[in-house]
Amino acid sequence: MSARNERGGQGGGEMSAMFLPLVAMAMGVSTCVFTVSSHMTKGRQPMFPTISMSAYIPASIEYYIFAYGLCTCATLLLITGCIIRWRFWEQRTSWLARFAYLAGNIGAIGLAVTSIIPLQPDIMEVLALPREKRKLNLQSNIHSGAANVFCLGALAHAVAFTAMLLWYKSKGNPLVGVWSLRLKCATSVLLCVFIMSPLLLFMYPKIIKGSRVTVVALNQYGAILSLLMYYGTYFLDLRGYKFTLVPNMEVMDDTDPSDEYPYHKQSNKSD
């Protein structure tokens, strides 16, 4: 796969790069909406489940949609990260850019692992036990750890990349449009609010009324929507750019020592 500006050369199998982040956002949001709404319409408990709790039953439709949908979303996020790195090629050596790309890739891998390895089949029975008797198995620990990696990686990517854009703008060299930067700042703030606010459950439990699962679930909905919206803002930065799945490479005849292929002159001189 290669990427280029729309004014560049020709290639085969081209499509506009701006659609990749939009497809990733749509795939992630639709997957989460389907699994959670299916859980609710079937009358399962809790009423407001975390996304993982709505897709843990083996061989259920929610199980497969969750796995295939979020794994596809993670793949598209990885590809989007590669194209964004190419789009901001001159800034790739700054430590903020390097950290943002690394965090984004790690977060996308965490999402892929989360989608492939669900919670254990008896998770609801385990959570119904008293806290001191609850015991998550290896499968649930891997799933939960990967979900945390995804959220924290996406948060770090959003904050670092937005900080880089603001720094370049302060130097009189804006890299993106006004609306792109505004949306990135807004979604970054929302990400911080939604991802960090569940800590209140453990720091100040008395101020939280109602089910802890419900509070965590509602925050998770907001966090997932915010981070996918952040990635969706990249479509504003990729307008006019295309990526090529099958580059149109000219087949060169290395037996023709003409002026069209100057490397023949170098090889003749060396002889």
Entry keywords:
271 residues, mainly alpha, 6% strand
Protein model, in words:
With 271 residues, the chain is mostly helical. It is built from ten helices and three strands, in the order E-E-H-H-H-H-H-H-H-H-H-E-H. The protein has a three-stranded antiparallel β-sheet, covered by helices on one side. Helix 1 (19-41) runs antiparallel to helix 2 (61-87), helix 5 (138-170) packs antiparallel against helix 6 and helix 5 crosses helix 8. It is elongated, with a radius of gyration of 23 Å.
Mean pLDDT: 82
Taken from the alpha-carbon principal axes, the silhouette is elongated
Which structural class do you get from the secondary structure elements? mainly alpha
Series of H and E elements: EEHHHHHHHHHEH
Order of strands in the sheet with most strands = 1-3-2
Strand content: 5-15%
Report the biggest beta sheet as strand number plus sense, adding barrel if it closes: 3 strands, antiparallel
* CA(first)-CA(last) distance: 37 Å
**Low-confidence runs:** 6-11, 256-271
